[in-house]
Design brief:
The protein is mostly helical. Helices cover 67% and strands 0% of the residues. It contains seven helices and no strands. It has helices at residues 21-28, 34-44, 57-81, 90-119, 123-149, 162-188, 195-222. Helix 3 (57-81) packs antiparallel against helix 4.
């Protein structure tokens, strides 16, 4: 008698490991950390999430150039429309000259960054450094403008729209003070973020990803294959 051939060897799919916080809490008598459960789930299921590609250096440089060009055009139009502050006092004229000069230098740095990014040149880093130095210079000029706006000559009156330019300076100084106050409040209050709520949000998002991955794995394992249907 012939010995019948052995059936082809096949491996049954193993069910994924299910995480039960209540069961683990009963066994250990302690409440397990939610972050530990996330790490435990990450050991059983590998989820490949495609990383978001950062924007290209050319796009970043072009965006910065366009934004700064719009801001500089608004300031230049206001300055030219009111006789270039000719009838204002010396300090206010100097302040506007420094502000517009800083903006012009910043635009030159932005244009250089765009060209360097297109050519993939090492000058891109130098342009970024010069742009950061220009921003520090403009910040110093704006801080000086706060002292001018609320100093002894805060109520500047003169022909040729000097009052308008002085008012615009005071509005700009007030805006800087408000933004600085809000930033200080956010720093002191921790950015308005609740640590426990942020952790719960993070854990919930991670567990949702793990559960979706496990469901997809179960569907793939339960789907019939050609070998299981006897076609091979």
């Amino acid at each position: 008698a012939q010995i019948p051939p052995l059936p082809r060897r096949c491996t049954l799919p193993q069910p994924p490991i299910q995480l039960d916080p209540n069961r683990d809490r009963q066994q250990t008598g302690t409440k397990m950390s939610s972050r530990f459960l996330v790490r435990q789930g990450s050991q059983t299921v590998i989820v490949r999430i495609p990383a978001q590609e950062p924007p290209s250096p050319v796009a970043e440089a072009m965006c910065a150039l366009i934004v700064n060009l719009i801001v500089a055009a608004a300031w230049l139009g206001l300055w030219v429309d009111y006789d270039m502050a000719e009838n204002c006092d010396k300090e206010l004229r100097l302040w506007y000259d420094l502000v517009l000069g800083g903006m012009a230098f910043g635009l030159a740095c932005d244009l250089g960054a765009v060209i360097a990014a297109r050519l993939e040149s090492s000058w891109l880093k130098i342009c970024k450094v010069l742009h950061n130095l220009d921003q520090l210079f403009e910040l110093g000029v704006m801080l000086w403008g706060i002292a001018l706006a609320y100093g002894k000559k805060s109520a500047r009156v003169g022909a040729g729209g000097c009052k308008v330019l002085a008012t615009w300076q005071k509005v700009n100084a007030t805006f800087i003070l408000v933004v600085a106050s809000l930033a200080m409040c956010m720093i002191l209050t921790g950015g308005g973020e609740d640590a426990e709520k942020a952790e719960e949000t993070y854990v919930g998002a991670e567990m949702t990803k793990r559960m979706r991955a496990q469901q997809e794995l179960e569907e793939n394992l339960e789907a019939p294959t050609p070998r299981s249907r006897g076609t091979i």
